[in-house]
Amino acid sequence: MCDWFDDPCFDDVEESINGKVFKADSWRRLMRAKEGAPGCRVVSVAGTTFRTSALKQIKTMDTAVLIPEPENPYDSKAMRVEVGGLHIGYLPRGSSVPPQTVPVLKWGADPPHVWLAVP
Questions:
Q1: Considering Cα of 59, then 61, then 65, then 67, what sign does the dihedral take?
Q2: What is the residue-wise DSSP string for 74-104?
Q3: Integer-rounded Cα radius of gyration of the chain
Q4: 45: burial class by Cβ within 10 Å (0-12, 13-18, 19+)?
Q5: DSSP run (H or E) holding 16
Q6: What is the DSSP letter of 24?
Q7: Total H helices, total E strands in the chain
Q8: pLDDT tens digits, 2-17
Q9: Which of 3, 16, 38, 78 is most buried, by CB atoms within 10 Å?
Q10: Whose CA is closest to 97, among 83, 115, 118?
């Protein structure tokens, strides 16, 4: 399915959120998420620097699963982020999001980062 933002004239368009630049295909994923879920916000997954081996194992990252972790000794409201059954980090502290599957907008292992679209 093609959308307006798939036109090559948008290859150089970029958007910056919290200092992270979304450009080309990353920007297209951001636009798809914004159009598909207008109430979504872009969130950076915390703790990815401690899970670089997990990030390197993942070949494609289309969706992430948010799983509550009430037994977490640091935050009883922690929300673990998994992709393909691998724990890659946590939602930032204070993010009140129910357990669900959410789209991954941008990711990479060097430097380790994952950006999600959450309601």
A1: positive
A2: S-TT-EEEEETTEEEEEPPTT----SEEEEE
A3: 15
A4: buried
A5: strand 14-17
A6: T
A7: 2, 8
A8: 566 677 777 888 888 7
A9: 78
A10: 118
112 exposure class (CB count in 10 Å sphere: 0-12, 13-18, 19+): buried
CB-CB contact of 106 with 22 (8 Å): yes
In Å, how far are 22, 37, 45, 99 from 96, measured between CA atoms?
24, 17, 14, 10
pLDDT higher than 60, residue 71? yes
Contact yes or no for 116/63 (Cβ under 8 A): no
The residue length of the chain stands at 119
The residue with tokens 């309601």 is 119
The reported pLDDT for the residue numbered 117 is 85
Show the tokens assigned to 75. Answer: 């935050």
What's the rounded mean pLDDT across residues 94-98? 85
| Other residues' Cβ atoms within 10 Å of the Cβ of residue 101 | 10
Three-class secondary structure of residue 31 per DSSP: helix
Is the separation of the CB atoms in 82 and 6 below 8 Å?
no
